[in-house]
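Second attempt. The first submission of Ubiquinol oxidase had a stray character pasted in from the spreadsheet, which I only caught after the job came back as garbage. Lesson logged: always re-copy from the clean sequence file. Corrected sequence (280 aa) follows.
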Amino acid sequence: TTAGRLFSAVKGAAAEGEKFPVMGVRWRSSLTLGEKEEVNNKNSEDGGNKEVVASYWGIKGEEVKKEDGTPWKWNCFRPWETYQADLTIDLKKHHVPTTFLDKLAYWTVKSLRFPTDVFFQRRYGCRAMMLEAVAAVPGMVGGMLLHCKSLRRFEHSGGWIKTLLDEAENERMHLMTFMEVSQPRWYERALVFTVQGVFFNAYFLAYLASPKLAHRVVGYLEEEAIHSYTEFLKELDKGTIENVPAPAIAIDYWRLPADSTLRDVVMVVRADEAHHRDVN
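This time the job returned cleanly.
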């Protein structure tokens, strides 16, 4: 039924010359903020009336509501995926490298910090965008490889597949949030493409060679993230960066008060990074 509706919707849209998501590739901007678009479905049962759809594939999804009964406007996450960040976690904790792999991971991450500092300097909004676009990769790669390993060996993963995929999703939500407060320039967007492509393949090979090394790299990467967000907070407190109201997506995702600001968002994101640090 879903496939039939999708085919009908695509056919109807094509007949009208509309832009439409085909095979997962969007011709229009993503609907991550819950905007709705109308698709002219010629083959619909109601005789071709406009049908409102708000899902990635153009299929009308189920109606989701908040706890207070108001409509839920986000497509990229659901109410049961939201939470309140634990701000009591130790932010200054440092996992001292002891083995050779630890030291290799530590200095690899340290070597990557210099070019990042030079390129972004104190543009912490765009710096966060780059950081989160990269930080969302390891969890997905690790979860994918553990998933395949579980299938090959016919054994359970001990819960680590879900843990890593949840980490990747959390980092992606960080990116969706900071995209609302930063306006990356074209060359910064291009840099994201380049860095993500290189990092994905490098991390994939590193995980195949040594999962322990790969996780250590992520752990030290998260320590650098904590440092970056701490500097971000300092700039907010000094007034160098305007402490604008928190994006609506952040308020709903972290269950923040309605009057929260960008500073509150950075605080919860930094706490998330500290948790990822300890897990890895």
